[in-house]
Write a structure and sequence with these properties.
Number of helices: 5
CATH superfamily: Fumarylacetoacetase-like, C-terminal domain
Shape: globular
Largest sheet: 6 strands, mixed
Number of strands: 17
Length: about 230
């Protein structure tokens, strides 16, 4: 199964991705203490610890979307900001995404919980070659709010220095294709940051941003979770 995505590049350019292989990397923190903290956050809501660190979960390419809203059964899922690498067969790019996950199902199976939810991604991207030399300085943030018009609450905040080097994750992924490349048509979500306070929790609205202080530019994306009724 494939899905077509188009990303805007700085200036007036764009890149089209015929997505065939979608992978979500988990437990990718560079600091093992931070990884253990995130594992503990999830254990607090019943999620079993991983068998190995990091892990690479295959998901359907059709789950990736730049739409401003996603639909979910029940109100037990939540987003988490992640850098996203993708390769169109010509070059590697960096975008922004949310590994939206059903937290109730996650207590039963992490792999199933990731497959059941859409994966929102930004409509913008940067050429990886332009940022490769200063990745650790690039910031990631996310915010949540319960209803439209309410105040945004800071949810995650950090930099790519808190994650394993992205090129290292690409090389370890199931779709590595030589130094600094993924197989054509592949997208890789590269892991997330711990929650600032209050624990991992659902929210109707999720906003995320990735800021490059060196080149002075930012990628942002926000989406709404629309909950479908749970019926027997």
């Amino acid at each position: 199964m494939t899905t077509d995505l188009t990303f805007r590049l700085p200036g007036e350019g764009h890149v089209r991705l015929c997505l065939q292989n979608a992978v979500v990397a988990g437990w990718t923190g560079r600091d093992r203490a931070a990884v253990d903290h995130h594992i503990a956050e999830l254990q607090a809501i019943g999620v079993p610890p991983p068998s190995t660190v990091p892990l690479f979960y295959r998901v359907s390419a059709a789950l990736f979307t730049a739409d401003p809203a996603i639909e979910l059964v029940g109100e037990t899922s939540s987003g988490e900001v992640e850098p996203v690498l993708f390769d169109d067969g010509q070059a590697l790019y960096l975008a922004l995404g949310s590994d939206h996950t059903d937290r109730k199902l996650e207590t039963h199976s992490v792999a199933l919980s990731k497959q059941i939810c859409a994966k929102p991604v930004s409509g913008d991207a940067w050429a990886f070659a332009e940022v490769a030399g200063h990745l650790d300085r690039i910031g990631l943030q996310s915010f949540i709010r319960e209803e439209a018009g309410a105040d945004w609450v800071p949810y995650q905040d950090g930099t790519l220095a808190q994650l394993r080097p992205l090129a290292e994750l690409a090389a370890a992924s199931p779709f590595a294709a030589g130094p600094g490349r993924l197989a054509a048509g592949t997208a890789l979500m590269c892991g997330t940051l711990g929650v600032l306070s209050g624990g991992v929790r659902p929210a109707r609205h999720f906003a995320m941003r990735m800021h490059d202080p060196v080149l002075g530019r930012t990628i942002e994306h926000a989406y709404e979770s629309r909950f479908l009724p749970v019926i027997a």
